[in-house]
Amino acid sequence: MSEINSEAAAAKDNINMDVNTVSSANAKDINAIGHDLGVEMRTNMQELGFDELLIREYLLDNPDFFNRYPELLVAMRLPHAERGAVSLVERRQELLRQRVSELEEEITSLMKIASYNERIFNFNNDLSFKLLACKDLGELRQLLSEGLKGEFGFSHVRLITVHDIDSELANIWRHRLQGGYYFGRLTQSESLRLFGSEVGSVALTKLSDENGQVIFAIASKEPTHFHPDMDSLLFSQLRHLLDHILPQL
C-alpha cells in the first residue's frame, strides 16, 4: 500500500512539474507575442505617419482641450534653444511676446510710410501752385529742379525732348520706357546721354503725346534709391501735373 502511495505522489509531482513547465513556456510565448505586437504597432504608426496629424487636427477642433486638462500645460515640456526645456505656458507666452514685438515693428513701419506719403502730398501741393504760376518753360524747369533737389536730395532733374535722329535717346524711349515708367539703373552711355554724367539710379517716364516725345527724368546718387518694385506715387502725380501745364506754355 505504501508503495502505491509513493508511486502516486511521484506521479503527482511529475504532473505539477510538467504543468509549471508548460505554463512558464506559454507565459514566455505570450510576452514575446505582446512585445512583437507592440513593436509592429509602433512601426506601423511611424510608417503611416498620421498619428501626429490626428493629434494636431483634434487639438485644432477642440481649442478648449487644455482648459479641461490644465495640468498638461505645465507638465508638457518643449525644447528651448537657450533654456533647455520650457512648459507649454512659457512657450506660448514667449510666442505672444514675439508677436507683439512684430506688430510693434509693423506699426512703426506703417507710421513711417504714412509720414513719407504726407510729406509727398504736402510737397506736391506746394509745388503744383508754383508750377501753375510759371510763365514759360525755363521758369518751370528751374522750379521743378530746385524743388525736387531741395526736398529729396536728387542729383539731376530733367525734361528731355527726344528726336528720332538721336539714336541713344530714341533707344531709351523705345526700350526703357516701353511700359511708360522705368525705375532702376542705366548703362554708362545712357547716363551720360540723359544727365551728362554717371548716376546711381533713375526714375524715367514718358509725358503724354500732346507734349511730343518728352522724357521726365530724375536721378539719384544712390544706386538703390530707385528700383523696379518702388511706389510711383510721387512720380505719377508730377507726370500728370506736367501733362496739364506744358501744353499751355
TrEMBL record:
<dbReference type="Pfam" id="PF04340">
    <property type="entry name" value="DUF484"/>
</dbReference>
<dbReference type="InterPro" id="IPR007435">
    <property type="entry name" value="DUF484"/>
</dbReference>
<keyword id="KW-0175">Coiled coil</keyword>
<feature type="coiled-coil region">
    <location>
        <begin position="86"/>
        <end position="113"/>
    </location>
</feature>
<protein>
    <submittedName>
        <fullName>DUF484 domain-containing protein</fullName>
    </submittedName>
</protein>
<dbReference type="InterPro" id="IPR029016">
    <property type="entry name" value="GAF-like_dom_sf"/>
</dbReference>
